[in-house]
Amino acid sequence: MSNRTTFFATNSTTPSIRGVKELVDGYDIPVYGIKEGTFYNIHVPALICICLSFICALTIMGYSFYHQHYSTFFQWTKSERFVVYMALCDALFNAAHFTDHLHIAVTKTLPRPKSLCAFYGFMLAEFITAQNLMVNIVAINVFILVFYRKHLNFGKCDYRLLVYIFGAPALGGLIAGALGQLGPNGSFCYFDGIKGKWTGVFFTTVPLLLVVVINTILYILSWLRIYKEAKEIKDSLGKSSRVLRASHKAAKTMSLFVTAFFVQWWAMALYGVWQLVADVPFLLFNFVTTFSNVGGILNGIVFIIIMRRKREKAESSTKASDDKVGSGHTATTPMHSIVHSNGHSANVV
């Protein structure tokens, strides 16, 4: 076996070493790393990252629902809801991937029966894709907010968003599972390294690359617009400039998710291209198994920044109100929303 891993796919369809039979499915692929002596270099760092990510994801959800009642969840700001959705994806992804990696690390064999491995693969496909779609929606929302001063309408209880980010990958994953495309790939359970090699490319590699390209373009355009408008309103006063500043703050806050996305998935995107044309170096594969498993940690950093900005905003508003009351002026309500063209307001931070 070459030094190339089979994360998405493998071109290994040649007969086995003995020349007795052709590779039929992912179970015919040797467990990656044993022969090369890199087995624990793969699974131990991955398990550590997964555990830390899982703890961060649970902490985010616990803190969020402890400090804000769950019954008002859909009245929270979009950024606060996005954090919870991302944490949920991370937690479920980590739970499935942990059992997968742990089984392989302990037994040095791929999980059986295949239905169990296919379930692990489905969970990974579901929540990897859900996070990618989620961050893409965030990037689009930032772009629309910056250029048009509007938010995407996710519908009552965010049903449009949730159906899209969870329903679409679930449907694709179920179809892939029914067609026998999910299973072991030599490193863990995802798309079968033999039967599902091209399904993995079109289900993961192609969408991920598209999301990376689209997010990059939207991210650059949004920040160029913010930079340009920030210079124009630097010394401006009035309601319009306050609305503009509020939209900029909201866009910058939501852009944190896009930044975290690039950090988490850059290695997988590069891997997806590299493995189509040449053997992938082990270092890059190590980057994949590390960065792709730290989503909860990155989401935790975003969460801390959002909470800090929220606290600073509250302290600033309180101080401004106290100063105005102390000087004899009537306190005004701080601005927490952008008024849309239809007259409705929406939380922005």
From TrEMBL:
InterPro entries: GPCR_Rhodpsn_7TM
The keyword Transmembrane helix is annotated on this UniProt entry: yes
Gene Ontology MF terms in the entry: G protein-coupled receptor activity
Membrane topology designation: Multi-pass membrane protein
Annotated region described as Disordered, given as residue ranges: 316-349
GO biological process: adenylate cyclase-activating G protein-coupled receptor signaling pathway
Name of the protein described by the UniProt record: G-protein coupled receptors family 1 profile domain-containing protein
Organism: Mytilus coruscus
